[in-house]
Protein backbone atom coordinates (compact mmCIF):
# COMPACT_ATOMS: atom_id res chain seq x y z
CA UNK A 1 0.00 0.00 0.00
CA UNK A 2 1.37 3.42 -0.96
CA UNK A 3 0.16 6.93 -0.25
CA UNK A 4 0.01 9.84 -2.62
CA UNK A 5 1.70 12.99 -1.39
CA UNK A 6 -1.16 15.19 -2.57
CA UNK A 7 -1.91 17.84 0.06
CA UNK A 8 -5.31 19.06 1.16
CA UNK A 9 -4.29 22.59 0.23
CA UNK A 10 -2.53 21.90 -3.12
CA UNK A 11 -4.82 24.28 -5.02
CA UNK A 12 -3.28 27.34 -3.38
CA UNK A 13 0.41 26.48 -3.89
CA UNK A 14 2.59 26.56 -6.99
CA UNK A 15 5.24 24.12 -5.76
CA UNK A 16 5.41 21.05 -3.55
CA UNK A 17 6.43 21.05 0.06
CA UNK A 18 10.16 20.62 0.63
CA UNK A 19 11.12 17.23 2.06
CA UNK A 20 12.84 18.87 5.03
CA UNK A 21 9.61 20.74 5.79
CA UNK A 22 7.61 17.51 5.49
CA UNK A 23 9.90 15.88 8.03
CA UNK A 24 9.83 18.92 10.31
CA UNK A 25 6.06 19.38 10.29
CA UNK A 26 5.12 15.71 10.39
CA UNK A 27 3.43 14.51 13.57
CA UNK A 28 2.45 11.03 12.44
CA UNK A 29 5.07 9.37 14.62
CA UNK A 30 3.25 10.84 17.62
CA UNK A 31 -0.43 11.17 16.74
CA UNK A 32 -0.79 7.78 15.02
CA UNK A 33 -1.96 6.46 18.36
CA UNK A 34 -5.14 8.52 17.90
CA UNK A 35 -6.19 6.38 14.94
CA UNK A 36 -9.18 4.65 16.55
CA UNK A 37 -10.55 7.95 17.86
CA UNK A 38 -10.00 9.62 14.50
CA UNK A 39 -11.83 6.83 12.70
CA UNK A 40 -14.66 6.71 15.24
CA UNK A 41 -15.09 10.47 14.97
CA UNK A 42 -15.08 10.28 11.17
CA UNK A 43 -17.72 7.56 11.18
CA UNK A 44 -19.97 9.65 13.40
CA UNK A 45 -19.34 12.70 11.23
CA UNK A 46 -20.31 10.98 7.98
CA UNK A 47 -23.41 9.46 9.61
CA UNK A 48 -24.42 12.96 10.66
CA UNK A 49 -23.76 14.34 7.16
CA UNK A 50 -26.06 11.68 5.73
CA UNK A 51 -28.74 12.37 8.34
CA UNK A 52 -28.92 16.05 7.41
CA UNK A 53 -28.74 15.33 3.66
CA UNK A 54 -25.29 16.74 2.93
CA UNK A 55 -24.21 13.34 1.56
CA UNK A 56 -26.30 10.36 0.49
CA UNK A 57 -26.90 7.38 2.78
CA UNK A 58 -25.21 5.11 0.26
CA UNK A 59 -22.16 7.37 0.28
CA UNK A 60 -22.10 7.27 4.07
CA UNK A 61 -22.24 3.47 4.00
CA UNK A 62 -19.32 3.37 1.56
CA UNK A 63 -17.29 5.74 3.70
CA UNK A 64 -17.99 3.83 6.90
CA UNK A 65 -17.04 0.54 5.28
CA UNK A 66 -13.79 2.06 4.07
CA UNK A 67 -13.01 3.53 7.51
CA UNK A 68 -13.64 0.17 9.15
CA UNK A 69 -11.26 -1.43 6.66
CA UNK A 70 -8.58 1.12 7.55
CA UNK A 71 -9.08 0.45 11.27
CA UNK A 72 -8.49 -3.25 10.62
CA UNK A 73 -5.36 -2.55 8.58
CA UNK A 74 -3.90 -0.41 11.35
CA UNK A 75 -4.71 -2.93 14.07
CA UNK A 76 -3.17 -5.77 12.04
CA UNK A 77 -0.03 -3.72 11.39
CA UNK A 78 -0.67 -3.58 7.63
CA UNK A 79 -0.93 0.21 7.38
CA UNK A 80 1.99 2.27 6.09
CA UNK A 81 2.91 5.79 7.17
CA UNK A 82 4.66 8.66 5.43
CA UNK A 83 5.89 12.06 6.56
CA UNK A 84 4.39 13.51 3.38
CA UNK A 85 0.91 13.03 4.86
CA UNK A 86 1.80 14.78 8.12
CA UNK A 87 -0.77 13.42 10.55
CA UNK A 88 -3.19 10.59 11.26
CA UNK A 89 -6.12 12.56 9.77
CA UNK A 90 -4.48 12.88 6.34
CA UNK A 91 -3.28 9.28 6.43
CA UNK A 92 -6.79 8.00 7.02
CA UNK A 93 -8.29 10.25 4.36
CA UNK A 94 -5.61 9.36 1.80
CA UNK A 95 -6.06 5.64 2.33
CA UNK A 96 -9.83 6.05 2.23
CA UNK A 97 -9.49 7.65 -1.20
CA UNK A 98 -7.48 4.63 -2.37
CA UNK A 99 -10.17 2.27 -1.07
CA UNK A 100 -13.43 3.95 -2.10
CA UNK A 101 -12.44 6.52 -4.67
CA UNK A 102 -13.53 10.11 -5.08
CA UNK A 103 -16.38 9.87 -2.57
CA UNK A 104 -13.68 9.91 0.15
CA UNK A 105 -13.22 13.61 -0.61
CA UNK A 106 -16.69 14.27 0.84
CA UNK A 107 -15.74 13.06 4.32
CA UNK A 108 -14.06 16.33 5.23
CA UNK A 109 -17.17 18.38 4.42
CA UNK A 110 -18.18 20.71 7.29
CA UNK A 111 -15.11 20.08 9.39
CA UNK A 112 -11.46 21.11 9.70
CA UNK A 113 -8.43 19.36 11.05
CA UNK A 114 -8.65 21.95 13.84
CA UNK A 115 -11.90 20.62 15.28
CA UNK A 116 -11.00 17.08 14.23
CA UNK A 117 -7.82 16.94 16.30
CA UNK A 118 -9.60 18.59 19.24
CA UNK A 119 -12.19 15.82 19.06
CA UNK A 120 -9.62 13.04 18.77
CA UNK A 121 -7.65 14.37 21.73
CA UNK A 122 -10.74 14.68 23.90
CA UNK A 123 -11.85 11.15 23.03
CA UNK A 124 -8.37 9.83 23.78
CA UNK A 125 -8.12 11.65 27.10
CA UNK A 126 -11.63 10.60 28.11
CA UNK A 127 -10.65 6.96 27.61
CA UNK A 128 -7.31 7.27 29.37
CA UNK A 129 -8.75 9.25 32.28
CA UNK A 130 -11.27 6.48 32.86
CA UNK A 131 -8.51 3.89 32.69
CA UNK A 132 -6.42 5.79 35.23
CA UNK A 133 -9.43 6.22 37.52
CA UNK A 134 -9.94 2.44 37.35
CA UNK A 135 -6.25 1.88 38.10
CA UNK A 136 -6.39 4.19 41.10
CA UNK A 137 -9.46 2.29 42.30
CA UNK A 138 -7.46 -0.96 42.29
CA UNK A 139 -4.55 0.76 44.01
CA UNK A 140 -6.85 2.09 46.72
CA UNK A 141 -8.26 -1.41 47.21
CA UNK A 142 -4.70 -2.68 47.73
CA UNK A 143 -4.03 0.00 50.33
CA UNK A 144 -7.22 -0.81 52.23
CA UNK A 145 -6.46 -4.53 52.13
CA UNK A 146 -2.97 -3.91 53.46
CA UNK A 147 -4.25 -1.61 56.17
CA UNK A 148 -6.73 -4.24 57.31
CA UNK A 149 -4.12 -6.99 57.24
CA UNK A 150 -1.62 -5.08 59.41
CA UNK A 151 -3.76 -3.59 62.15
CA UNK A 152 -1.32 -5.01 64.70
CA UNK A 153 1.66 -3.00 63.42
CA UNK A 154 2.69 0.20 65.20
CA UNK A 155 5.36 2.57 63.95
CA UNK A 156 6.72 6.02 64.71
CA UNK A 157 4.92 8.84 63.03
CA UNK A 158 7.28 11.57 61.85
CA UNK A 159 7.39 15.31 61.56
CA UNK A 160 10.51 16.97 60.14
CA UNK A 161 11.69 13.35 59.57
CA UNK A 162 12.09 13.11 63.36
CA UNK A 163 10.17 10.59 65.43
CA UNK A 164 7.10 12.36 66.76
CA UNK A 165 4.28 10.12 68.03
CA UNK A 166 3.37 6.48 67.50
CA UNK A 167 0.74 5.61 64.90
CA UNK A 168 -0.68 2.47 63.43
CA UNK A 169 1.01 1.47 60.18
CA UNK A 170 -2.53 1.02 58.85
CA UNK A 171 -3.31 4.65 59.68
CA UNK A 172 -0.26 5.69 57.68
CA UNK A 173 -1.38 3.61 54.69
CA UNK A 174 -4.85 5.07 54.87
CA UNK A 175 -3.32 8.53 54.49
CA UNK A 176 -2.25 7.45 51.00
CA UNK A 177 -5.71 6.04 50.39
CA UNK A 178 -7.04 9.55 51.03
CA UNK A 179 -4.49 11.10 48.66
CA UNK A 180 -5.21 8.73 45.79
CA UNK A 181 -8.94 9.10 46.39
CA UNK A 182 -8.62 12.85 45.90
CA UNK A 183 -6.65 12.21 42.71
CA UNK A 184 -9.42 9.98 41.38
CA UNK A 185 -12.05 12.56 42.31
CA UNK A 186 -10.11 15.29 40.50
CA UNK A 187 -9.91 13.10 37.39
CA UNK A 188 -13.64 12.40 37.54
CA UNK A 189 -14.36 16.08 37.84
CA UNK A 190 -12.04 16.81 34.93
CA UNK A 191 -14.12 14.53 32.71
CA UNK A 192 -16.82 17.21 32.76
CA UNK A 193 -14.45 19.53 30.88
CA UNK A 194 -13.06 16.78 28.65
CA UNK A 195 -16.43 15.47 27.52
CA UNK A 196 -17.38 18.53 25.45
CA UNK A 197 -17.82 17.75 21.74
CA UNK A 198 -15.97 20.28 19.50
CA UNK A 199 -16.66 18.78 16.05
CA UNK A 200 -18.63 21.13 13.84
CA UNK A 201 -16.65 24.18 14.92
CA UNK A 202 -14.62 23.71 11.71
CA UNK A 203 -11.52 25.89 11.43
CA UNK A 204 -12.73 28.47 13.97
CA UNK A 205 -15.98 30.10 12.82
CA UNK A 206 -18.36 27.18 12.42
CA UNK A 207 -19.72 25.95 9.08
CA UNK A 208 -22.32 26.94 6.51
CA UNK A 209 -23.66 23.39 6.25
CA UNK A 210 -26.86 22.40 8.14
CA UNK A 211 -25.07 20.03 10.50
CA UNK A 212 -26.55 18.44 13.60
CA UNK A 213 -23.86 18.69 16.24
CA UNK A 214 -26.09 17.25 18.95
CA UNK A 215 -26.53 14.09 16.86
CA UNK A 216 -22.76 13.75 16.40
CA UNK A 217 -22.31 14.18 20.16
CA UNK A 218 -24.91 11.50 20.79
CA UNK A 219 -23.16 9.05 18.47
CA UNK A 220 -19.84 9.72 20.23
CA UNK A 221 -21.34 9.64 23.75
CA UNK A 222 -20.51 13.24 24.58
CA UNK A 223 -22.90 14.77 27.13
CA UNK A 224 -22.14 18.34 26.03
CA UNK A 225 -21.40 20.30 22.84
CA UNK A 226 -18.98 23.23 22.73
CA UNK A 227 -20.83 26.55 22.58
CA UNK A 228 -18.15 28.74 21.00
CA UNK A 229 -16.38 27.65 17.83
CA UNK A 230 -13.26 29.74 18.48
CA UNK A 231 -12.86 28.38 21.98
CA UNK A 232 -13.57 24.83 20.79
CA UNK A 233 -10.56 24.66 18.47
CA UNK A 234 -8.16 26.69 20.62
CA UNK A 235 -8.99 25.27 24.06
CA UNK A 236 -6.43 22.99 25.65
CA UNK A 237 -7.47 23.70 29.23
CA UNK A 238 -8.65 20.12 29.54
CA UNK A 239 -5.13 18.91 28.83
CA UNK A 240 -3.63 21.40 31.28
CA UNK A 241 -6.10 20.29 33.91
CA UNK A 242 -5.30 16.63 33.36
CA UNK A 243 -1.56 17.29 33.51
CA UNK A 244 -2.02 19.24 36.72
CA UNK A 245 -3.96 16.35 38.28
CA UNK A 246 -1.41 13.87 36.98
CA UNK A 247 1.40 15.93 38.51
CA UNK A 248 -0.33 16.02 41.90
CA UNK A 249 -0.90 12.28 41.71
CA UNK A 250 2.75 11.70 40.85
CA UNK A 251 3.77 13.83 43.82
CA UNK A 252 1.76 11.43 46.00
CA UNK A 253 3.53 8.50 44.36
CA UNK A 254 6.87 10.22 44.90
CA UNK A 255 6.22 10.81 48.60
CA UNK A 256 5.12 7.21 49.04
CA UNK A 257 8.19 6.04 47.13
CA UNK A 258 10.49 8.12 49.31
CA UNK A 259 9.05 6.47 52.42
CA UNK A 260 9.39 2.98 50.97
CA UNK A 261 13.01 3.76 50.11
CA UNK A 262 13.71 5.05 53.63
CA UNK A 263 11.83 2.24 55.37
CA UNK A 264 13.71 -0.42 53.38
CA UNK A 265 17.11 1.03 54.27
CA UNK A 266 19.31 -0.51 56.98
CA UNK A 267 18.92 2.70 58.99
CA UNK A 268 15.15 2.16 59.28
CA UNK A 269 14.71 -1.53 58.54
CA UNK A 270 10.91 -1.33 58.76
CA UNK A 271 10.16 -3.22 55.53
CA UNK A 272 11.73 -5.41 52.91
CA UNK A 273 10.82 -4.97 49.29
CA UNK A 274 10.05 -8.12 47.28
CA UNK A 275 12.96 -9.45 45.25
CA UNK A 276 10.88 -9.30 42.08
CA UNK A 277 10.58 -5.52 42.49
CA UNK A 278 14.20 -4.76 43.41
CA UNK A 279 17.56 -4.99 41.69
CA UNK A 280 21.14 -5.74 42.67
CA UNK A 281 24.46 -4.06 42.17
CA UNK A 282 26.89 -4.83 39.36
CA UNK A 283 29.79 -4.61 41.80
CA UNK A 284 28.46 -5.04 45.37
CA UNK A 285 26.99 -8.52 45.86
CA UNK A 286 25.15 -7.61 49.07
CA UNK A 287 23.05 -4.81 47.58
CA UNK A 288 19.28 -4.92 47.16
CA UNK A 289 18.26 -1.65 45.62
CA UNK A 290 14.75 -0.14 45.73
CA UNK A 291 14.84 0.69 42.02
CA UNK A 292 11.08 0.61 41.43
CA UNK A 293 10.26 3.25 44.07
CA UNK A 294 13.31 5.25 42.99
CA UNK A 295 12.18 5.26 39.37
CA UNK A 296 8.66 6.23 40.35
CA UNK A 297 10.09 9.05 42.44
CA UNK A 298 12.15 10.18 39.44
CA UNK A 299 9.25 9.95 37.02
CA UNK A 300 7.32 12.46 39.12
CA UNK A 301 9.68 15.13 37.81
CA UNK A 302 9.00 13.95 34.29
CA UNK A 303 5.23 14.43 34.59
CA UNK A 304 5.66 17.79 36.30
CA UNK A 305 7.88 18.69 33.33
CA UNK A 306 5.08 17.68 30.97
CA UNK A 307 2.79 20.15 32.75
CA UNK A 308 5.41 22.92 32.51
CA UNK A 309 5.89 22.08 28.82
CA UNK A 310 2.18 22.48 28.13
CA UNK A 311 1.79 25.65 30.20
CA UNK A 312 4.69 27.23 28.34
CA UNK A 313 3.29 26.09 24.99
CA UNK A 314 -0.09 27.74 25.58
CA UNK A 315 0.85 30.86 27.51
CA UNK A 316 1.16 33.29 24.57
CA UNK A 317 -0.97 31.79 21.82
CA UNK A 318 -3.55 34.11 20.24
CA UNK A 319 -6.93 32.68 19.32
CA UNK A 320 -7.71 30.45 17.57
CA UNK A 321 -5.69 27.42 16.41
CA UNK A 322 -1.92 27.72 15.99
CA UNK A 323 0.45 25.05 14.71
CA UNK A 324 2.31 25.24 18.03
CA UNK A 325 -0.56 23.20 19.41
CA UNK A 326 0.65 20.18 17.48
CA UNK A 327 3.16 19.94 20.32
CA UNK A 328 0.42 19.33 22.89
CA UNK A 329 0.36 15.57 22.35
CA UNK A 330 3.91 14.52 23.31
CA UNK A 331 3.61 15.82 26.89
CA UNK A 332 0.05 14.53 27.19
CA UNK A 333 0.90 11.05 25.93
CA UNK A 334 4.02 10.93 28.09
CA UNK A 335 2.13 11.89 31.24
CA UNK A 336 -0.61 9.35 30.56
CA UNK A 337 1.92 6.59 29.91
CA UNK A 338 4.07 7.46 32.91
CA UNK A 339 1.25 7.73 35.43
CA UNK A 340 -0.35 4.55 34.11
CA UNK A 341 2.95 2.67 34.40
CA UNK A 342 3.46 3.82 38.01
CA UNK A 343 -0.02 2.69 38.99
CA UNK A 344 0.47 -0.65 37.26
CA UNK A 345 3.75 -1.40 39.02
CA UNK A 346 2.58 -0.36 42.49
CA UNK A 347 -0.56 -2.53 42.46
CA UNK A 348 1.34 -5.86 42.41
CA UNK A 349 4.34 -4.60 44.41
CA UNK A 350 2.64 -3.31 47.56
CA UNK A 351 1.02 -6.58 48.71
CA UNK A 352 4.39 -8.35 48.50
CA UNK A 353 6.22 -5.97 50.82
CA UNK A 354 7.30 -7.66 54.06
CA UNK A 355 6.86 -5.75 57.31
CA UNK A 356 9.39 -6.03 60.14
CA UNK A 357 6.86 -5.30 62.81
CA UNK A 358 9.19 -5.93 65.72
CA UNK A 359 11.65 -3.35 64.37
CA UNK A 360 8.84 -0.85 63.90
CA UNK A 361 7.54 -1.53 67.41
CA UNK A 362 10.98 -1.05 68.97
CA UNK A 363 11.30 2.25 67.14
CA UNK A 364 8.15 3.54 68.84
CA UNK A 365 9.82 3.02 72.24
CA UNK A 366 12.77 5.31 71.54
CA UNK A 367 12.99 9.03 70.95
CA UNK A 368 10.58 10.17 73.70
CA UNK A 369 7.49 9.67 71.56
CA UNK A 370 5.45 9.66 74.78
CA UNK A 371 6.47 13.16 75.91
CA UNK A 372 3.24 14.72 74.64
CA UNK A 373 1.26 12.06 76.48
CA UNK A 374 3.03 12.95 79.71
CA UNK A 375 2.09 16.60 79.15
CA UNK A 376 -1.50 15.58 78.41
CA UNK A 377 -1.54 13.46 81.56
CA UNK A 378 -0.49 16.43 83.68
CA UNK A 379 -2.97 18.73 81.93
CA UNK A 380 -5.73 16.27 82.78
CA UNK A 381 -4.58 16.52 86.40
CA UNK A 382 -5.39 20.25 86.32
CA UNK A 383 -2.02 21.72 85.34
CA UNK A 384 -2.24 24.29 82.50
CA UNK A 385 -0.94 22.69 79.32
CA UNK A 386 1.96 25.09 78.83
CA UNK A 387 3.20 24.28 82.34
CA UNK A 388 2.60 20.59 81.76
CA UNK A 389 4.59 20.90 78.52
CA UNK A 390 7.49 22.42 80.46
CA UNK A 391 7.41 19.68 83.12
CA UNK A 392 7.47 16.98 80.43
CA UNK A 393 10.31 18.75 78.64
CA UNK A 394 12.43 18.79 81.79
CA UNK A 395 11.67 15.11 82.31
CA UNK A 396 12.86 14.39 78.76
CA UNK A 397 16.11 16.27 79.42
CA UNK A 398 16.67 14.31 82.64
CA UNK A 399 16.00 10.98 80.97
CA UNK A 400 18.27 11.90 78.08
CA UNK A 401 21.10 12.71 80.47
CA UNK A 402 20.66 9.29 82.04
CA UNK A 403 20.52 7.51 78.70
CA UNK A 404 16.92 6.41 79.39
CA UNK A 405 13.43 6.88 77.96
CA UNK A 406 10.60 8.49 79.93
CA UNK A 407 8.94 5.14 80.58
CA UNK A 408 12.26 3.82 82.00
CA UNK A 409 12.28 6.42 84.78
CA UNK A 410 10.75 5.17 88.03
CA UNK A 411 7.84 6.85 89.75
CA UNK A 412 10.08 8.66 92.24
CA UNK A 413 12.15 10.17 89.43
CA UNK A 414 9.05 11.29 87.56
CA UNK A 415 7.47 12.88 90.65
CA UNK A 416 10.42 15.28 90.86
CA UNK A 417 8.78 17.11 87.96
CA UNK A 418 5.27 17.14 89.42
CA UNK A 419 3.74 15.75 92.57
CA UNK A 420 0.55 15.02 90.63
CA UNK A 421 2.19 12.13 88.83
CA UNK A 422 0.92 8.75 90.04
CA UNK A 423 1.60 5.13 89.13
CA UNK A 424 -1.13 5.23 86.47
CA UNK A 425 1.17 7.30 84.26
CA UNK A 426 2.95 4.15 83.11
CA UNK A 427 -0.24 2.93 81.42
CA UNK A 428 -0.33 6.25 79.56
CA UNK A 429 3.24 5.99 78.34
CA UNK A 430 2.91 2.66 76.49
CA UNK A 431 2.75 2.56 72.69
CA UNK A 432 -0.65 0.85 72.72
CA UNK A 433 -1.99 3.36 75.23
CA UNK A 434 -0.70 6.31 73.24
CA UNK A 435 -2.25 5.05 70.02
CA UNK A 436 -5.66 4.15 71.42
CA UNK A 437 -6.03 7.36 73.41
CA UNK A 438 -5.91 9.31 70.13
CA UNK A 439 -9.56 8.66 69.46
CA UNK A 440 -10.56 12.03 68.05
CA UNK A 441 -12.18 11.72 64.62
CA UNK A 442 -9.48 10.95 62.08
CA UNK A 443 -6.97 9.95 64.75
CA UNK A 444 -4.83 6.83 64.88
CA UNK A 445 -6.77 4.90 67.54
CA UNK A 446 -7.41 1.30 66.51
CA UNK A 447 -11.19 1.73 66.57
CA UNK A 448 -10.89 4.83 64.36
CA UNK A 449 -8.72 3.11 61.79
CA UNK A 450 -11.09 0.14 61.62
CA UNK A 451 -13.96 2.56 60.98
CA UNK A 452 -11.89 4.33 58.31
CA UNK A 453 -11.21 1.02 56.56
CA UNK A 454 -14.89 0.07 56.71
CA UNK A 455 -15.82 3.52 55.42
CA UNK A 456 -13.37 3.21 52.55
CA UNK A 457 -14.78 -0.16 51.55
CA UNK A 458 -18.31 1.21 51.62
CA UNK A 459 -17.28 4.26 49.58
CA UNK A 460 -15.63 2.07 46.94
CA UNK A 461 -18.67 -0.19 46.88
CA UNK A 462 -20.82 2.85 46.16
CA UNK A 463 -18.43 3.86 43.38
CA UNK A 464 -18.92 0.46 41.74
CA UNK A 465 -22.70 0.71 42.07
CA UNK A 466 -22.64 4.20 40.59
CA UNK A 467 -20.59 2.98 37.66
CA UNK A 468 -22.99 0.08 37.07
CA UNK A 469 -25.91 2.51 37.01
CA UNK A 470 -24.14 4.64 34.42
CA UNK A 471 -23.61 1.53 32.28
CA UNK A 472 -27.31 0.68 32.54
CA UNK A 473 -28.15 4.14 31.24
CA UNK A 474 -25.78 3.59 28.31
Key phrases:
single chain; 474 residues; mainly alpha; Fumarase C, Chain B, domain 1; Fumarase C, Chain A, domain 2; Ribonucleotide Reductase Protein R1, domain 1; 3 domains; two-stranded antiparallel ribbon; two-stranded parallel ribbon; 19 helices; 6 strands; disordered N terminus
CATH architecture of the largest domain: Up-down Bundle
Give the low-confidence spans: 1-5
Provide the β-strand percentage band. Answer: under 5%
Give the helix/strand class: mainly alpha
CATH topology name of the largest domain: Fumarase C, Chain A, domain 2
Instruction: Work out the count of structural domains.
Output: 3
**CATH class of the largest domain, anyone?**
Mainly Alpha
Which series of helices and strands comes N to C? HHHHHHEEHEHEHHEHHEHHHHHHH
What is the spatial order of strands in the main beta sheet?
1-2
Number of strands: 6
CA distance, first residue to last residue: 38 Å
Sketch the major β-sheet.
2 strands, antiparallel
Architecture overview:
There is one protein chain. The chain has helices at 19-25, 28-31, 35-51, 57-75, 88-100, 113-149, 169-194, 213-219, 229-234, 237-263, 291-314, 329-349, 357-364, 371-380, 385-402, 411-415, 425-428, 431-437, 446-473, and strands at 154-159, 162-168, 196-197, 224-225, 271-272, 354-355. The strands form 3 sheets. Strands 1-2 form a two-stranded antiparallel sheet. A two-stranded parallel sheet has the order 3-4. Helix 6 (113-149) runs antiparallel to helix 7 (169-194) and helix 7 (169-194) runs antiparallel to helix 10. It is elongated, with a radius of gyration of 30 Å. The protein folds into 3 domains: 10-109, Fumarase/aspartase (N-terminal domain) (Fumarase C, Chain B, domain 1, Orthogonal Bundle), CATH 1.10.275.10; 114-201 and 227-356, Fumarase/aspartase (Central domain) (Fumarase C, Chain A, domain 2), CATH 1.20.200.10; 371-429, Ribonucleotide Reductase Protein R1, domain 1 (Orthogonal Bundle), CATH 1.10.40.30. The two termini are 38 Å apart. Helices cover 61% and strands 4% of the residues. It has 474 residues and is mainly alpha-helical. The model is unreliable at 1-5 (pLDDT under 50).
